[in-house]
Structures are given as structure tokens and as C-alpha cells.
Amino acid sequence: MAGTRAAGDGAFGVAGAASRSPAANGRYRPPRLIEALVPRPGVARRIAEAEGGVVLLAGPPGSGKTTLLAGHHAVLAEQGAPVHWLTLSIEDNDPALLARHLARAFAGDAPCTHDAGEGGDAPHAAAGITGFVDGLERISDPHAHALIERFLLAAPADSRFLVTGHRMRGTALHDGWLRGMVCVIGADRLKLTDDEAAALLGKGWTRWDAQRLNQIADGWAAGLRFFARMPDAARRLLHDSGEQAAIPAEMADYFDDVICAGMDAETLAALMDVSVLDRFTPEALAAMPDAPCPWSRIDAHIRDGLFIRYLDDGRSWAAFHPAFGRHLRQRLRRFDPARHEQLKRFAATWFEHNGFAAEAIRHAVTVADTAFAARIMENVGAILVDLRDGPDVGLGERVSASQAGELPLLFLGQLYFRIRSGRLVEARTALEDARAVTHDFTALRDGADRVAIQGFAQLLSMVLEASEDRPITEARIAGLEAALAAYIGTQPVLAGSVASLLTLVYLELSRYAEAATVCGIGLKALQEYSASKVAIFLRIHQGDVALARDTIDKAVLHIEDAQRLARIEGGGSSYEVLSTQVLRANLHYENNELDIALRMLEPALAQMHTINGWVRLYAAGFANAAAIAGIRQGLDAAEAQLRAGEALARERNLPRLLQFMAIARLRELTRAGEWRLAMEAMEAPPLADLLAAESLSPAILGVQVPALLEAARLMIELGRPHDAQVWLDRINKAFLDEADSRLRFTFRVMAMRAAHGLRRYNAAVEHMQAAVDLARHTGLVRRALNNRLHLIEMFDWSVRNGRHLPARIGAYVDDVLRRADGSESGAALQQASPRRGVEQLANNFTLSPRETEIIALVAEGYITKEIATRLGISEGTVKSHRKKIHEKLGVASRSQAIVRARDLLII
Q1: What secondary structure letter does DSSP report for 813?
Q2: Residue among 787, 721, 731 at smallest CA distance from 756
Q3: Domains along the chain?
Q4: Distance, CA of 363 to CA of 380 (rounded, Å)
Q5: Tens of pLDDT, residues 377-415
Q6: Among candidates 522, 555, 524, 384, which has minimal Cα distance to 457?
Q7: What is the pTM of this model?
């Protein structure tokens, strides 16, 4: 593809396209940047600090190379440094003309008298300058290219040249690179970071949307600019699961006019065919039907630096730039739909036969022939792939219950898709019909993996029970525990899935230690598939355990990791993405970051009817949204959120969710001072029945205790501490001792206020100290600040009356509560807070499967030599792993590593 030509970056990386052939009077100065630049301090620093006389910025057009050079030129010019600029054009393929331009730009205006033809000498650059050469990719003539190589490498030692091009090519430049004279800043370094992408996209995008768009653009500055200019098209891409959405029209024009227009028809047709595969090997290309594309053509395109790259060091796999590949596929679908369909079928079959199940499904779901697609998805294990690392298998044409014996894995995959989409009644009916037809999944096609199929059927039945919020029985717990034991070591995805469900059950029962243990078992089972849908929910549950019994900081670590996995595996507005978004928002709420929390909650809650979930997820989301709305806008706004939660409860037939919404309504009525309405709510169903219930069931107590606390709060606000104490006395203390820290904190505050009102001062002081200690340890900022005046009042009373209080209590009250006005976030209070808890960890705290295995053995007391023998690796390798473990966990010793790994529930 030597004939391929593309416009240089100009300022297009963040501004606009530069001319192919710059006007003579503009050749010797940087192009004018029309739009504001996005600061890129990391790359700018790399350019400034790069060693070597020549620095080459090498990347595809539109990657911001010219912009970066122009920025560096401006910095040096402002400092008074001698800077010189030359923009190359296709005219410079004439060596004599190129020599004159180089001489004028970098050696003064004296005419060039030497021979610059083949083998001739290049002009000489002046000493002590910094030269900028933009557009090296435009020089295709070998003599001209050799001339500019000689010019750059022969520059005086005190001069420096910064050059842009699509890639490094030429013998002399490669030789200079090997000798340290040339520094290459390649395409990977030129990609925008997620923060830079967010800045370029502008306001109106969530952090995760900006990150996803940056993935689609692959850090390509021009692509992100197109998204910023055409936000509606960009948003369609975010919610596109079947590649039906078109890229922005300006981006398509750019690819057509700048990239495709420079190709001959045969090359363009070949690349359009190959784009259907998206990623490919020489073997895949050789197997393509009808005039396959030779690998040499791909290799040449890669060497031209134009939107195809190798994926591995062995150069076996290559892939298109995500946006460019999509553009080529859309061209093929538009111009030759039959060929597109033929190649989609080929791709699905090729990836299936070569063991790439997830990719086989991704291609199969877009094939028009649903019978063919169904067979592909069944063959690769549909639901297994979906739960592991593959796409949803919601094939447009559903497999009926009558086909469940012939296509069991696809049927179960589609059933899971319906559950994920919140269509629980439909899913339950389909599962029961399939059980009848297949005699409980025993009448299956020959060769079917009966153990796995029956296991997945049992799993989906348990998922439905949890989703329908059915009562938790001992038989149900025993069934889950038995299933987990059966699948460990043989069926890792099933084991991880059952562990996730069992953990959810333990959380409902406030059995947090057991929940943490089962999470660890599930994640260990999934070591090979750590980036999976199942792992997302295990991380979520780890976050719930941390929030309930440890610290907000620790919960944030787990939920943010779950969010990261959800964006990788779920995409768009999936079950995983929305669930993690609600949970992260709840942590923002607890950290008193109310505006951030509401911005995350509102769009997620609006889509709750389109996904599956669990009662406590819904309850916390709608209750917290109502609390924020009530604080910011008043009771009517809070009521709107509560009605939305009640509507979902009725739609899904979830009585406990109705109870949680009633509790939240009582809280909001009390906050608003609507005493009569609050009393009416408390004395009417469902609250009246809940408050009067007599039960030792943790599932019932988990709803009743919050209701009793809100009833006590209302009585205290009404000046009736005796009645408040009556409600508090009804709380099951054995359950409370093991309950979520948020319930324990609220109980301590209500008990303190009631005791103070009843003049039981010793009890009030005891409750105050317990509440402050909980706030210090857990980081419940919102709750601490919301009750700060009452805590300060009790603390001051204690001091005035000569009570001795621990120094930690006084420090927290004086340094945190007394200085606050109630609007501070956790971050704002962090410096002042003497609270103890898990220290902030590095962002890379997640250990690899091997590192997890090693820290577990270290915790069991094995020494380095024993670990090496047990794992079949060298002692040096073990030591290397242990060093990395210490770095990731931010510790300095073996004992600290064990403690930190246990804190993070890694072991």
C-alpha cells in the first residue's frame, strides 16, 4: 500500500485538519489551532525529556501529533529558544525541492547549491536550534526520504529535531534508533487517557460513558473530537449491542476521504472483507471464502501505520482500530449485504472451530439465519460463555421450551437473558415448561453434558428464587451449600455462580463472616475467569460485607473494581452496569456526596424495570434517591422517588420492597415535620403490621429493625422519649449485634437521644461513645454529620458534668463534627478525621491468580522453598511474586501482607 496517502494531523488531534499541501507562507510556522487544546502533560513531558537528537512522534492520522508539536514549539518560543518549523507536503518528494525547503527552514535563506539528488548530500542544519518537521509520512519517494534521513541524523550535536509521521521507516532512522540517536514516541503513547478523553468530550458525559467512548475511539483524538461534535451519534454507539448504530457522519467522511480514498479498489475491497472478522490470523484469512485477502496486504497496511495493528509479539493476530473496522463493516453491509452475511457465517464458524467461543457468539448473533446462529451458540456452550466472558445470548428468535432438549445450553442462555432483563414471570414459565418437556433436563440430545446442563438449570431456578424474594429456608441454604461443594474443582463458572447466590442469602441473614468466606471461595474458583459476569457480583457482595462490617473506604475499593469489570463485560445499560452504578451511588450517599450520588441514581433507577436485581438493591437505591430529593427539593420530590420504588415492587410482586418504601416514607415525613401524616403512615399497613410482627427470622428482622428505628425517631421528634424507648426496646438485640453498621449507628443515636430525654445520662453517654466509635471506624460521614448536633450536645454535657471520655472521642467531635456544617463530603473531612480504618490502597490492589495462590500459602505458614516445590516453580519466581504482592498491597512485611490480603477478602 505504498500508494496510500493521508492528510497529516495538523491540529486535528484536537482542532482541525491540516492541508495536504500547505501554502508557501504557512510552511515555515506551526498551523493555526482554531479550537482550544486539551492539555496532555504526560506526553508533553515525554517529548521534552526524550533523549536523542531526533524525536519521532509516530501514529495514525488524527492522533494529535501536530498539535503536540505545535504546543511544544509555543512553549520553547515563549522561552526565547531558537525554534524552526517545516511542514512537509507531497511536493517534497522532489529531492531538490525538499533540500531547498530544509535549507530555508533550518539553515537560513541561502540558496542550496549542492547536489541533492540520488546519493547527494543533504543541507546542513544550523547549530543550537530545535527543529520541527511535520508530516514525514508524505515523503514516499525513496531518494527524498533518504535525503531527509541524512539531514536529521547529521544535525549538530547541540541541535534537536522533533518529527511527526505515521511510523518509523527507513534504514538510517532505524539504525539511529538502535544507536540511541532517535527516540520514538509511538501510537500507544499518543492515545488519550480516559481523563484526557473526558476533557476533550466536554461536559454532559458520565465518567463511564467517557471511558467507553475512549475505548471505541481507542484513544484516537480525532475520533473523540467527532464524538464531541456529534453527541447523539456517540450516545447511540454506547447503547448499541449489535453494531447497528452508525459512526458519526463526520468520522465516516474522514475515513472515506482521508484513508479509503488513498487505496486502490482491490485493497479497499479486501479490507472490507477482513473487517468482518475484526481480529484475525493468517490462517483465518487463508480460510476466507472467495478471493481471500493475502496476509502481505495486511502487513503492508500495518507498516503504513493506518488503523490496523498487531495484537501480539509473535505477530500472529491483528485487529482493526475499533471505529475504522466498524466503518468498513458498515460499508460492506451497505454495498454488498450478501457478502457481509456470508462472511459473518464464516467468522462464526471459524471462531467456533478454533475454540474462541465468545467471539463465535458475537458473530453468530448478527447472522440473519437464526437456525444457523442457534446451532453455533449451542455448540460453544451459550450460557457458560455468557456467564464467563461472552456477550448476552438473547438471539432474536427464541428457542421454545419444546426445543430445550435439543438446544439446552442456548435455551438456558436465553432464559438467563430474560432474567437479567427483569422478565421473571416469563422466565419462570419457560423454565417450568422446559422441565416438563425434558423430564427435568434428563431427556437431552446425544452428547450433551448432562451434569453441566442440569447444574445450570438448577442455578437459574435459584436465581429466580432470589429475584422473586422468596423466603429463605434452611433447605434452600443447604441446597446452595451442597451445589457449591459439588462444583468446586470441576465446574468453576457454576461454582462461582452458586457462591454468588449463597453469599446473597448470607447477606440477607446478616451472616457476614460466612458471606465473606463464600465470596473468597467463589473468586478462587473463578481464577481463570476473573474478568467475568459472575466475578462482578462477587465483588459487589464483598463491597456489601465491607460496608456492613468494616469501612466505606474498603467497600469503595470492591465496588469500583466491580464497576470496572461491569463496563468491560456488561457494556451499555446492562444488569451488571446498572447494579454497580446504584451501589456506587449509595456509597457516595454515605460519604455525603449527595449531588454525585443523585446523578448516578436517577438514570440507573429509571432503568430498573428493564433489569433484574434484588430487594435490597432496589430498596437502598430508591430510599437514598428519596432522601437526597427530600433534602434538595422537598417532600414532593422525595415522594416521587418512593412512588417509583413502589411501582417496581408491584410490578415484580415484592412485598418487602413495599415495606422498605414505607419505612423511607416515614423517614421523609418525619424529616419534613409532617407529624400527622407520619403517624398515619405508622399506624397503617404495611408499617403497622411490620411493627407488630413477632419473628426471629433474620429476613423479617432485616426490615422490621429499620422500621422500629424510624418509629423511635418520630417519637423523639415529637418530644416523646418514653414512647421512643418502647420502640427501641422491641428491637431484637441479638440480631442488632450482628447487623449492618448503619443500623447499629442509627440505633446508638436514637438510644442516646431517648436516654437523654429520659434523663438516663449514663446510658446516653455510653450510646454517644459507641456511635462516635462507629462513625470513626466505618466512615459513615452522612450519618455522622446528620446527627452531629445531637452528638456534640451529648459530648458537651458529658464534659460539663465531669465525665471522663477517651481522647479519641474528643478528637473526633472537636476536629470533625464541631468544625462541620453538614455539607462536607468524606474527602473534605479526611484530613481532620482521626478515624481509624483500612488505609487507602493502590489502585492495582487486585492480585493475579498466581499471586493469590502464593499469598494464601504464605498465610498458611509455608516458606519460599516449600511454595516453590508445591507449585512447581523456582524459588526466585516465588520471591518475585511476593515482591509484587507487597507492592500491590502497599505493605512492607509478610505479616502486613497477610493482614491486608485478609482485609481485602483475597484470602
Answers
A1: I
A2: 721
A3: 24-190 (3.40.50.300), 263-335 (1.10.10), 740-840 (no CATH), 849-903 (1.10.10.10)
A4: 12
A5: 899 888 888 887 777 776 667 788 999 999 999 999 999
A6: 384
A7: 0.75
